[in-house]
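Assess this one:
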Amino acid sequence: MSQTLAPPLVPPESRGEQPPAQKPVRRRGSRWLRRLAIGLVLSAAVAGAAWYAVRGYRKIVSTTNEAPIPTAKVLRGDVSLSITARGELRGGNSEVLTAPLIGGAEMHIIDLRTPGDKVKEGDVVVGLDTTEQEYRLSEAEADLAEAQQRILQTKAQKQANEEEDRYALLKAQADVRTAELEVRKNPLSPAITAHENDLDLTNARDRLKQLQQNIANRKATNDATIEIQEAAAAKAEAQATTARRNIEAMTLRAHRDGYVSVRQNTTGNMLFFGMTLPLYQSGDAVRPGMVIAEIPDLKNWEISADISELDRGHLAPGDKVAITIIAAPDRQFHGQVRELAGTTGPPWNRHFECKSSLDDPIAELRPGMTAKVVITTDQLRGVLSLPAQALFESGGRTFVYVHSPAGFTPMDVKLIRRNETRVVISGVSEGQEVALANPTELANKKPEASSAMKSLAK
């Protein structure tokens, strides 16, 4: 059996051919190492972020738990009790300019000076719309002229009637005398003629008597007609005079030199909590008797301030007042309480007006300037006092939180006096340290803060 031998292998290079391109061999081990390195880097980043988050959370919790409670010490010394309020500068004994009392109809402002304008005696401050009053004046004047013409006509007619009556009366009297003369002839006249003469005399006398009665009645009627027309004329003249007076009264003038202070518009406006009413301006409606503006007396300044009802019992006329005008902060003014008005306002904001004098005014002051007043109500010497926020009230108790090694303990005290910043008390010792905040409330807030931080950390 013969065996076929394979031809010998000859490299392609020896045959002059190019060897075929070989495909790169992928190594599975290098890809796995690359993924492992990326995973380790991401894990390290997450672990670092978590570490920083836990560290920040611990720091916040530590700061919250270790936040100190503010405290103050009981001090003994002199305490000046005062009340601070913000007020408005006004002139004392102000000249009030009110809408005239001309009936129940509203009036409208057509001219009004700007607040703070300087005016002299006789200058117009407020001008009200006089259209209706001018119409009434023209009607009254027309009625007056018509009544006067009717009076003249009635008087002329009366004079003509009197002339006619006088002539008729003379004729009737003459008829009576003629009839009397005819009656005298009766003895010589036939009986029937004498009887006719008697009848003529009786008729003449009756006509004279009736004419005299008619003249008297006509005269009374004419006089009554004239009186009625004169009354109508007097009424029309009174209406015209009233209209002229109203027109004059609707122009409000200053009776002294000074500055204009415009009042707030309360006509038809409802005041809500925290709301400030606008000032009167041209075009606004105003009811009769309402105050529109005023001219303060610049020789007698005063400060008007609203003060809480709680401080009413601590004030009295004559208390000293330190005044700072906002427009003149470099100068301190002085005065004293002059008048305390009644308490007004809603239940949640009861207050009263306190008027204080200004004893040392300067020429630069103007009505309406804002002022800060500090009223000294009392001077207590050698008393124990604390900041006002250190005193707590609950369930009819008045107490403070006294610091001790075991923490803060509530201690009942007696309140003697208080103002906006300090309280005068008894029942504690000088130098004792008390809390300026409620420790119980702060302790209750800590778990809430911790739970919030934990939720953030998750």
